[in-house]
Amino acid sequence: AAQLCPSIPPEILAAQLANESHWDPKATSSAGARGIAQFMPDVWNQVGIDANGDGTANIWDPQDAIPAAAEFNCLNRRLVKGVSGNRLKNTTASRRIQKHRTT
User: pTM for the whole thing?
Assistant: First the structure.
């Protein structure tokens, strides 16, 4: 899944998932984030993908959520392109801002 966004090292995606959900596909947060990648439902509705081809983009399915998280990282990377500072740090900070914007 990390190959979907080659500009973000696989270790970063793995660290995000470990930090967000401790790799628990059934994780929920008090703010309403869901699944292994801890997407807020409104964000998932915008960026969720059916990566496993079963006909449903499922926030609870790691086969959908992990690739969606990788693509979301690329989206955030594009959003911070012109921002000063370390682009990788800005990308991961942007992900946290997007995640919490709906709360």
Answer: 0.83
